[in-house]
User: Which sequence fits this backbone?
């Protein structure tokens, strides 16, 4: 059996509050791994530790991936520059040191592929909650990730946009992009094959069928 | 004396010198503060808190004290007296630079720190370099930076205590609006002092109008 992560005796605390306590689990390699659990159990924290954004207070996280792997994180509450959608996508490519001459073409191809051209020149502050979620996903996809970490994809989305997200996720999986996702959305869970890790409030964690 | 006749004599030069000294000092202070704030933001080192404490404390530095120190250092018997810049616009720029740099640095650092907290997680997820982080912060806070520089310019233009000590208020050489107002008032030329005062207020209104328009259009 192949593993993506082996977590042993993981503790994470912030502001003198224990968020994760004594987590141990071996996360199997899977095209889509969904993390579930009640509010406040530390799902987002766990995912940020897996991504490498947070450093555990103690314990060990062993990663079975190449150090130069392309990965992207779609935040539940995404942060954007106070600018247009185009400039936000451009900025993500700039941060990833994609050559300037390719950036416009990459952006145009990405938005065209998802019929979201109409969003390109809109200011972020003029977008609806659903559009912000979509742009946040686009901003990660534009980096052509091999592993995508996706926190609550169905937040603020209507059923039409959820269909769209599901289609994108299915296509990503088909093109061998590995996805870790936090969601409770039954439409996603029921329609896409996945492994489900459930995190309990006592920090117990295990696979669920 | 009519206002037009005042405009044709040395008072034009006074206004020009005021603007030259204050704008020059503000540009230098802004560039220095930009570098210092960026460095302090991106580097954690022992003594950083102390530096920030000093910078914040220097915000309330009395200008006359700055003038006095510079006078002692740059007077003929001072350690830098050989530079012979006392009673010149150069030392007036240095004085204003010293007075407004802590103010600009403190404001910039606060603005940068707030923006850094806001975007740091996202920038970390992109594995962005420190240079790209600071470029992004400057880009995101660009309108705040204009407002900070205008605040610095306003402070420099209205300063009188230091420039009168180090500049000497010499006609055609180091006389600026504020020092001139002091002189004309002491000579009883209240009309002239008032015209200069009104000019200073007019410039202050223009600066604030620019800030207002920037806020209205972009923020």
Assistant:
């Amino acid at each position: 059996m192949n593993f993506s992560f082996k977590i042993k005796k993981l503790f994470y605390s912030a502001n003198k509050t224990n968020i994760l306590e004594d987590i141990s689990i071996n996360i199997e390699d899977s095209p889509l791994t969904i993390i579930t659990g009640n509010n406040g159990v530390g799902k987002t924290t766990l995912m940020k530790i897996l991504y490498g954004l947070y450093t555990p207070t103690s314990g060990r996280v062993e990663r079975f991936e190449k150090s130069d792997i392309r990965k992207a994180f779609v935040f539940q509450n995404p942060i954007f520059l106070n600018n247009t959608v185009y400039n936000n996508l451009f900025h993500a490519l700039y941060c990833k040191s994609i050559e300037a001459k390719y950036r416009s073409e990459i952006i145009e191809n990405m938005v065209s592929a998802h019929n979201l051209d109409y969003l390109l020149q809109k200011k972020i502050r003029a977008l609806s909650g659903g559009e912000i979620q979509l742009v946040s996903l686009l901003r990660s996809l534009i980096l052509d990730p091999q592993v995508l970490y996706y926190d609550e994809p169905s937040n603020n989305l209507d059923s039409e946009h959820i269909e769209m997200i599901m289609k994108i996720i299915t296509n990503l999986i088909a093109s061998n992009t590995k996805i870790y996702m936090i969601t409770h959305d039954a439409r996603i869970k029921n329609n896409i094959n996945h492994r489900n890790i459930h995190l309990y409030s006592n920090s117990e964690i295990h696979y669920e069928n | 004396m009519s206002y037009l006749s005042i405009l044709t004599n040395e008072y034009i030069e006074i206004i020009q010198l005021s603007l030259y000294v204050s704008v020059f000092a503000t540009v230098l202070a802004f560039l220095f503060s930009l570098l210092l704030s960026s460095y302090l933001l991106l580097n954690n080192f022992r003594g950083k808190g102390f530096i920030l404490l000093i910078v914040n404390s220097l915000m309330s530095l009395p200008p006359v004290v700055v003038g006095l120190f510079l006078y002692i250092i740059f007077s003929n018997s001072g350690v830098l007296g050989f530079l012979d810049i006392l009673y010149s616009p150069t030392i007036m720029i240095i004085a204003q630079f010293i007075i407004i740099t802590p103010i600009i640095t403190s404001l910039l650092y606060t603005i940068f720190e707030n923006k850094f907290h806001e975007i740091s997680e996202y920038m970390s997820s992109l594995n962005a370099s420190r240079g790209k982080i600071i470029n992004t912060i400057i880009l995101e806070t660009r309108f705040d930076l204009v407002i900070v520089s205008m605040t610095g310019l306003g402070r420099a233009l209205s300063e009188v205590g230091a420039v009168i000590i180090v500049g000497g208020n010499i006609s055609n050489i180091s006389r600026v609006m504020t020092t001139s107002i002091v002189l004309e008032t002491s000579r009883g030329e209240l009309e002239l002092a008032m015209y200069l005062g009104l000019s200073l207020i007019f410039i202050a209104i223009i600066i604030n109008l620019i800030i207002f328009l920037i806020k209205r259009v972009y923020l």
User: Anything to note?
Assistant: The mean pLDDT of chain B is 92. Residues 89-125 of chain B form the longest helix (37 residues). Chain B has one domain: 3-218. The domain at 3-218 of chain B is CATH 1.10.3720.10 (MetI-like fold).
